[in-house]
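User: I'm writing a short report section on ligand binding and want a predicted complex to refer to. Could you take this sequence and iron/sulfur cluster and write out the structure as C-alpha cells? A short remark afterwards would be nice.
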Amino acid sequence: MAYQKTFDPNSSTPHKLSRTKLDLFIECPRCFYLDQRLGIKRPSMPAFTLNVAVDHLLKKEFDISRSQGKAHPLMETYKIKAIPIDHKNLADWRNNFVGVRYLHPETNFLIYGAIDDLWQDENGDYVVVDYKATSTQAEIKLEGGYKEVYKRQAEIYQWLLEKNGLPVSKKAYFVYVNGKKDLAAFDGRLEFDTQIIEYIGDNSWVDEAINNAHQCLISDTIPKPNDKCEYCCYLESAKKVID
Ligand code: SF4
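Assistant: Sure. The C-alpha cells for the complex follow:
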C-alpha cells in the first residue's frame, strides 16, 4: 500500500505518522506542521551509536531467555512474573521501518512505532518494554523533562498493540543501563549497572492527540512558534539583525 510522507489534505492516500512525529506535534505544532505538511525537516543530529549498540546487545541477551521460554535473571531479581515472548510479528514490530502499525480510521493516519521488547505476564497480557542507556550519578527516575517523552513512548506502544487486538498490560518496563564513570580506567570497555523501572501507562490521550495533529495538518495556517524554544528564538533574533 502507498502512503503519503508529506501530508496532502486533498489526498485519500493514508498518511504515515511515526510515534516520534506525533511527539513532535505535542512538543511544537509548528515544527510538526513544517515537517509533515511542508516537508521542512529539523536539521539532522548525529546518530547515538553507543545507545544503538546497547539496544542491540540487550535484544540479543533477552532473546536468549526468549528462546528458552523463561524469564531473564534480571526479571527474576525484580520479581517480575513475565517472560520475553516469541510473538510471530515481533521481528516486524522491532523493525524501525515497519513497527507496530495501525491505520487510524478517523484521520487516515498510519500510526507506527518500533518496540524494543515484548514480554507476556502470567495473565497472558502483553507487556511493553523499552531499553534505555544513560550515564549518571543521580538516581534514575521517570520524572521531569524528556522522561515525559519516554512515558508517552510506552503509552503509544501500548495503544498500538491494543489496536492490533492484543490484551495489553497497563504495566510497562524500562530496562535502564547506567554507564559507570567511577572505574579506575577505560581499559577498552564500558561497564553498566542495570535496573528495571516499572511504569503504569495511561494511553487515554492518544486518540485526541492524533485527532488534534490531523486538525493541525488540514489547516492552511502555520501554527505559532513555541516562545520557549531556543531554535526559533535564535532564528527570530538572527532574522532581526540580518533584516
Ligand atoms: S518553536 Fe520553532 S524550532 Fe522550536 S520546535 Fe517550534 S517551530 Fe521548531
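A remark for your report: The radius of gyration is 20 Å. The first helix runs from residue 19 to 27.
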